[in-house]
Design brief:
Layout lengths: L15 E12 L2 E12 L3 E5 L6 H8 L7 E6 L2 E2 L7 H5 L2 E4 L11 H13 L3 H14 L15 H13 L5 E5 L7 H16 L3 E5 L3 H7 L2 E6 L2 E7 H6 L4 H11 L52
Parallel strand pairs: 3-8, 3-9, 6-7, 7-8
Antiparallel strand pairs: 1-2, 1-4, 4-5, 9-10
Helix pairs in contact: 3-4, 3-5, 4-5, 5-6
The structure holds adenosine-5'-triphosphate and magnesium ion (MG).
């Protein structure tokens, strides 16, 4: 490959960038995606929400071919990527992916992390790659940390480096899979702010997230997935504010009210109080905040944070 490998084409706003139709994915007998239809146009920010195990990560992984679809079609920039003749590595250069767990190379500096793929995959010179890296580190507010190793950075800084690394490949679209879920709460805002700036710059984005404030504020559309299907899709304010399906309503209730009582408990009368004949003291450690299904441990959301 030459040193002048082209950047990804940026299609005009409104043109389809990601076109998914009839997408199915099974792992052995387990059907995980059961027929997904979804189009993301240039400049769109589509937030994907839904319960743990509903297939959100598998959907993103199919889009950049980390998983091979079992059936259906995925077009990226008009190219059918499930076609066996397509050069997958070339397709992937147009798709930036950011994971929950940063995935930086621990033995390389920030600059090394940002330049390696540019040089190896795009064939850029060291000087070109460094210039691009620096521009993207400035965008995420970390131009002063280019000589640091990942272990010397906070989780939020590492995730911003991971975003800058993906941007350094000049992708036409960015996929984010719960990019803030592994972060301490006080570090979430900086990462979301970088993502918001990216969205405002016109980047096409698919974002799996439990940050409902972000989805509302930055997402053009929200897709609610459950059990391998798109159950609802629409403007962020509508899907989050007044979901049509019962499943979305229950999910959003739990994510937006992480310390609330279960649906099954709704409508019950006041529980017995100490002194009542039916009163039973709770077992030790039975705090609501730590109950399975409430917190971040099961990937079903945590207290929404305001984007600065
Ligand atoms: N490589 C795999 N092999 C077998 N089963 C898998 C594989 N990857 C995912 N699955 C299964 O597919 C289902 C969907 O998983 P996926 O990771 O896409 O869900 P998710 O919506 O991203 O969940 P979470 O919110 O917990 O991240 C799960 O039941 C999971 O166990
Ligand atoms: Mg996932």
């Amino acid at each position: 490959m030459t040193a002048s490998a082209p950047a990804s084409p940026r299609p005009p706003a409104g043109r389809p960038v990601i076109e998914i139709s009839g997408l199915r994915k099974s792992f052995g007998p387990a059907a995980v995606l059961k027929g997904i239809d979804l189009t993301v146009n240039a400049g769109d920010v589509v937030c994907v929400i839904g319960p743990s195990g509903s297939g959100k990560s598998t959907l993103l992984r199919c889009v950049n071919l980390l998983e091979r679809p079992t059936a259906g079609s995925i077009k990226l920039l008009g190219v059918e990527v499930t076609d066996p003749d397509v050069d997958i590595d070339r397709v992937r250069t147009h798709v930036g992916m950011v994971f929950q767990s940063f995935n930086l190379f621990p033995h390389k500096t920030v600059m090394g992390n940002l330049t390696m793929a540019q040089r190896q995959v795009l064939g850029r010179s060291e000087a070109q790659a460094r210039a691009v890296a620096l521009r993207n580190l400035e965008q995420v507010g970390l131009a002063d940390r280019l000589d640091a190793y990942p272990a010397q950075l906070s989780g939020g800084q590492q995730q911003r480096v991971a975003i800058a690394r993906a941007l350094s490949m000049d992708p036409a679209m960015m996929l984010f899979d719960e990019p803030t879920s592994a972060l301490d709460p006080e570090l979430v805002g900086d990462v979301l702010a970088v993502m918001r700036d990216l969205a405002e710059s016109g980047m096409t984005m698919m974002v799996v997230t439990h940050e409902m404030a972000f989805a509302r504020e930055v997402g053009d559309r929200v897709v609610f997935m459950d059990d391998g299907q798109v159950m609802e899709e629409g403007p962020a304010a509508q899907v989050i504010g007044s979901p049509r399906t019962e499943r979305a309503r229950v999910f959003l209730h739990r994510v937006l009210n992480p310390t609330a009582v279960d649906e099954s408990e709704l409508g019950q009368t006041e529980p017995p109080q100490p002194g009542d004949p039916d009163y039973r003291p709770p077992p030790a450690g039975h705090g609501r905040a730590g109950r399975p299904g409430d917190g971040r441990s099961d990937g079903e959301g945590h207290v929404p944070l305001t984007v600065r």
